[in-house]
Amino acid sequence: MITFLFWNIAKRPLSQTISALVSENNVDILILAENEIPVAELLDLLNPPANVRFNFVAPPIPIAGSKVDIFFGFDPAFLQPQTDTRRATFRRVLLPGRQEFLLCGVHFQSRYVWEETDQAHESVEFNRIIRDAENSAGHSRTVVVGDLNMNPFSQGLTAANGFNAVMTRQIALTKNRTVADREHPFFFNPMWTLFGDGEVRPGGTFYMQPPGYNSLYWNMLDQVLIRPQLIPHFDLSSLKILAEYQGGRLVAENGRPSMSDHLPILFKLNL
């Protein structure tokens, strides 16, 4: 099993909490958005003297204002930078004896800046970047994880020429759909299974107090999307929104995010 943890930490100094979450959940790949903690500081905490294993693989060409950092609990020789933009980073993961896959960490544009239609148009462009990275890698065993700043039902997620992410694995396993004589490959979006019912767990990953008539309160902005080729390897039971850990809680008494304005997500691939 490979364990992934994603968290938008909203530029907060949460290095101790991150280290505790990684240790407690035996995380292998850590993806952070809006991280301003120095890489060296995080690596010191992630690598205690008796268990040095985490590395940071920077893009070949540094990108100013990069929104996503990925830390790997593997030898850098097994990782290849693929494509990097300011809001996304791609890595080919080639672990010995395991099936290669493509990892994309992303922090999409916010609704504070863009309208939903803008996000939908950008999703079409981002879809092209993903397809190009897959063509370069020679396969489409792709995992996209990050702060998409859209809900699973948003147009950018559901449109065929956007992320084309569907809520059931049965649909996703049909691999693609054809619109206007063009084929569009599916992503499976398992985050639908965690949306709502905040009594026993958070109702989403991001809470917004309604300013007017129309509001969901809870939003599922942080998501993992799985290509059909990886669905047999995805452990749905491992998918969690983390609200607490042994060192404390990530939510306030009212159940809303407290350390960051987002809650982290955890999942595993059996590779």
CATH topology: Deoxyribonuclease I, Chain A
Unreliable parts: none
Helix-strand string:
EHEHEEEEEHEHEHEEEEEEEEEE
**Count of the separate structural domains:** 1
**Residue share in β-strands:** 25-35%
What sort of overall outline do the alpha carbons produce when their principal axes are compared?
globular
Mean pLDDT: 92
Helix content range of the residues, please?
Answer: 10-25%
- Please give the count of helices: 5
First-to-last CA distance: 6 Å
Largest sheet: 6 strands, mixed
CATH superfamily (homologous) name: Endonuclease/exonuclease/phosphatase
Structural class: alpha+beta
Number of strands: 19
How would you describe the overall organization of this protein?
The longest helix is centred in the middle third of the chain and has 22 residues, at 116-137. The chain starts with a strand and ends with a strand. A six-stranded mixed sheet has the order 3-4-2-1-19-16, with no helix packed on it. A five-stranded mixed sheet has the order 5-6-7-8-15, covered by helices on one side. A two-stranded parallel ribbon has the order 9-12. β17 (244-245) and β18 form a beta hairpin. The radius of gyration is 18 Å and the shape is globular. The protein is an alpha+beta fold and 271 residues long. The mean pLDDT is 92. It has helices spanning 15-24, 39-46, 116-137, 155-158, 169-172, and strands at 2-8, 29-33, 55-56, 68-72, 79-85, 88-93, 101-107, 142-147, 165-166, 176-179, 182-185, 187-188, 206-207, 218-219, 222-226, 234-241, 244-245, 248-249, 265-269. The protein has a single domain (2-269), classed as 4-Layer Sandwich (Deoxyribonuclease I, Chain A). α1 (15-24) runs parallel beside α2.
